[in-house]
Amino acid sequence: MGAEMSKSKPRVVYLHRYPPEIEAFQWPALRELAKALAPAYELVYVSMGPSGGRRNEELRRDMRVIELPFSVDQTDGRDKWFKTLRWYAHTGRTLACIQELAPAVVICKEALPFLPGRVAALGFPTIIETSDWWWSILLGHRGWGRKLAERLERREVRSWNRPTVKATVSTRAEGRLLEAKGLEASRVVVINAPQNPGVFRPLEPRPSKEELGLDPAQKHFAIFGIIRGGKGYDQLLDWWRTAVARHPDWRLVVIGGAGGEAWCRRQIAKRGLGQVVHMTGWLPTKQEVNRWLNAMDAVLVHRRNSPDNQGIIPSALYNGLSTGRPVAASGLPGIAEIVRDGTDGFLFTPDDGASFVAALERVVADPDAAASIGRAGNLRAAECFDSGRAARAHRDLVEAMSADSES
To answer: Can you tell me the distance from the alpha carbon of 323 to that of 145, in angstroms, rounded to the nearest whole number?
Structure first.
């Protein structure tokens, strides 16, 4: 990992374990941010390499990419986890590279345990994004784990209370969560996360259920993404037993996996739901996920009512809204800042199975109204998650922090 480059411009280091080709999908403002920074800054992106050496030279034109000596296959859930551990083991090497670069600002897009605090401790102006709470991801399957995760996250967040640090959040609720974990309010900056236009979108014509091997006489509701217990999949399956007892023609479609698929199958079998829950496994492309979502009667966005989920805006929310299908989502504070119940989506009370079933009953009771709400959700996603606006907000924050460090 080398840091040799021109010193004609101040540098901005963008730290993420995934290469820019993946990050440009996960955080679609990257391309616009790189162009916005290019006149005044040298953007240095530090990450693993792309699978198979597939580099997008057009994307990389406005940045210098420093790669660790291994790549990641983002379509392989197990490889993602293994390479994340390997990337984490290289933390010392990565921090030394940043130290050598002497950046004007560091954008830390990795919230792996202790990493943001260690980056901030280097003393450079640092922007920390808080989209993932890794202690909750790793320990959130059980009550004792969630309590331990909360203590560890508080310790981590308090380490960010430095004059040179700002933390970006997607919602006001997420900002309040950070403050509750011990971050000073002056360190919080609200910037809505951008959506990925063009990948998750309405398809015309919509794929038929028959094409996907589903029974068109049944109602299908899909949840999608990486499967883990902290998201509340076990809770959702408990509710599904009640739902299908009342509505035998309802089917739950679980799209995704990345290591949690076997656990989810056991939970389904444990509850005797094998005939009413369909698992697709990890689909090979986002386009295929979008195809499945377009065939659904509604898209589900579910999170347990836990402290780490209070302000969260899951990628499933803006991707789901972008399909133009009706979205039924947990009415947690952050999600409720985006989805207006009955206007551009359907909200149900967190941790309340009866409210969940009632929300889906509202969807199927009036398909035309639900379709109209789905179309409104698509417009709402474009309004709230504009990539250009996110890029400009980050550029402005970089400029302000760089100027403060020079004064």
So the answer is: 35
